[in-house]
Amino acid sequence: MHRRLALFLAACALAVSVPVGALELAGVKIEDTAQVGTQQLKLNGAGIRYKVIFKVYTAALYMTEKKTTTAEVLALPGAKRVSLVILRDLSSDDLGQRFMDGIRKNAEVAERAKLVNAMLSFGQMFATIPEMKKGDVLTVDWLPGTGVVSQYNGKKIGDTIQDPNFYNALLRIWLGASPADDKLKHALLGEESK
């Protein structure tokens, strides 16, 4: 009897296992790879950003190899991508402000002083998008030799920012000591997929 139950439970577990390439969050399919420049990157982790009880966006982190700590992610050379899929209509001003607040919470005053021009340039990018709609996609890439490149629904927006320290400041919005969402931080570090 116990053996049959064990076999049944094992069969159920196999039936519900989800391959890495088939990850879906809030109706958004998360690809297991992303092409950034000439590099094929692997999904490090993905999750949902909540504000109170509302789903704001899905976030996925792609890198050349999987890392499980913030320090390892920041130190890893090569291309990187953060991909956000918007889950509810919101003003680009609101999202831009959240980005800036996230940088301020996770960077020391001296570091922020060095990033002022990059922050201004990045903030101006949001002025080119009046409103972000459910389903819109924002990607922010680090391309070695090029810089920080942002795309909105597949089209480049804003200026390229050549400071690698700025990209790490952006990553700390989600992975820093005061992340935008603790559960999302763990998900992006590959600790969970929900």
Automatic annotation (TrEMBL):
Coiled coil: none annotated. Residues 1-22 form the signal peptide. The keyword Membrane applies. Pfam families: Chalcone_3. Residues 23-190 form the Chalcone isomerase domain. InterPro entries: Chalcone_isomerase, Chalcone_isomerase_3-sand, Chalcone_isomerase_sf. This is Lipoprotein transmembrane. Keywords: Lipoprotein, Membrane, Signal, Transmembrane. GO terms for molecular function: intramolecular lyase activity. It comes from the Bacteria.
